[in-house]
Amino acid sequence: MDFNTTNYKDNEPMTEYEASNEEGNEVAFDEVDGTKLYFPNVSLDQKPYVGMEFESIELSYDHYNAYARISGFSVRKDSSRYGKDTIQRRFVCSNQGTRHQKWVDRVDAKKEPKSVTRTGCAAKLEVIQKNEKCIVHKFVEGHNHALNTPSKRHILRSSKKMTENSKRLIKSWNDSGLRLSQCHNLMANEAGGYKNLGFDEVNMRGVIRRSKAAMETYGTDAGRMMDYFRGKQQENPSFFYSVQLDSAGQLCFKDKWDKCIYGTQCPEEFEQFWNEMIQEFNLQEVDWLNTMWRERRMWMPVYLRDTFFAGMSTTQRSESMNSFFKDWVNMRTSLIDFVKRYDMALQKRREHEVRQDYKSLNEQPYLRINSNIERQLANVLTRKIFKKFQPEYVASQCCYGTLVRHEGLEKKYEVRHESNLKKAYIVSFIETGQSVQCICKKFEFEGIVCKHMFCVLKLEHISKLPPHYIMKRWTKDAKTGFVGCDHGIQESFKKTVSMRYTNLMYWANKIALSGAIYERTHDMVENLLKKGLLESEKINKEEETHKANKQEASGVEDVDISDSVDINASIDEEHIGHNGSSQTITILDPKLVKTKGSGKRISRVCRICKKPKHDSRNCPNK
Hints:
Blueprint: E1 3-7, E2 26-30, E3 36-39, E4 53-54, H1 57-71, E5 75-82, E6 86-93, H2 101-104, E7 124-130, E8 133-140, H3 164-175, H4 180-191, H5 201-210, H6 212-217, H7 221-235, H8 248-262, H9 267-280, H10 287-294, H11 296-299, H12 301-304, H13 316-325, H14 335-362, H15 372-380, H16 383-396, E9 399-407, E10 410-417, E11 420-430, E12 435-438, H17 442-446, H18 451-459, H19 497-515, H20 519-554, H21 567-571, E13 575-578, E14 581-584
Antiparallel strand pairs: 1-2, 2-3, 4-8, 5-6, 6-7, 7-8, 9-10, 10-11, 11-12, 13-14
């Protein structure tokens, strides 16, 4: 097989989701069928080769797995063949093979099909063990998929490892009442970060699920609770328990409420449903509902659907942050502990983002229709957002559209779903620019194209979703062009002495860590720093002279807050210079504030005599 090999960095720029470019992996094109192959850029001493010898099959697997981790792919153990005095074993890339069609075409599947991870990759290592020696028989290096970047290599499945001691700790902490997320945070802190831990919460959940105690209670939790109550009743006849079920009236009101709040298209329809609901359940005198009605334009979705909220509710952002930080801080957390835990919380959030990027790179979502639009969305959108688009697109196949008006370039369609043919949604389509707008306003409110818009696009024979309906924030390349903290601080953040000092300290720390490894690098860095210090002092004197001449010429003292700060005073944490003198400043803790609900409880009073310690039912003046 012939290949035309080029270095990735010499080609046109690719996105992170097309290829790894952090180490210049080579890209080769099969001249026969044009297949793109990726070759890891690793040193020769780390790469296996035909004829390489190992003492055992296990050691050959360990070597190939270590090579895979450096290269950015995961390994899986494949077939074994046994001869009279030989054993042949094959290790393959985890993307080897394809999903069998019978699993794709299943109609009795109860769960959502898993994402597709098999791409038919041919990369593999075959070894033969004979006479107590294991020799590499075949080595295929090229991959037909992009390789993972170093920031994602700790997520590779074959690189994960959990020791028996870690398993015991997880079981013990879980039995003590700690949540798995808290156990994960503790172990990551001990390991020096989530990347050094070697496993994630999914692996920890598997340990608990496979434990004997979990297997005994799995699926029988409610029954065991009832047995516990019955046992308590046998021990103590006065013990009472009951099980309360949802009443039909409560369920009925909830259905009406949900239909009124989330099932109406326009303010007029909402107001009609609301009044009918209030009348049906005799809720005219409920003050809370009357207040909600007066303020309906501030919270009701039909009044806000013209504004983009990414599908978030009014308090969802606040509740999400509260949920995120509840595992890290509480009312007794000190300032220093808060800073440390806040840093750990950010590390966990970034780790979660890296794992989601890894899944978007290595997994392809299951396609239900396998049309041009669905394939387009699967290639462009992140996994989570694709799962929001896909149900709408699939539902559009059960929608019926009727052209009701055509004036110039604008068309009006009535779209109905087969589940409710009486309800019609008006969709406008303008041929110029392929503009579509639905009365449900799902795209305007959530950024997700609704099934009614998909239906009209199909009627107009548009095989790909117009790019202006794919928001960049939903795409795999949403961070393209973003400069992270690892790439330095932008010029706009260097306007004050403290910011410039922080920026230089960041790079100085990196230089010190790199320069201290070998004596040669140490001497080179030391000379550069000495030279840089002399140049810096020279420039500082020139700037001071220039500033003094400028002030003398203008007669006005140039006051620049950002440049008038004494850098020595900024560095000193205890002594701050003021008019040539040294002054000791003590930094005090902030004032404590009462937490929500901790204030002095107000005694209730009788509504008849207005006195405390009793109510209207036993009032002496009654």
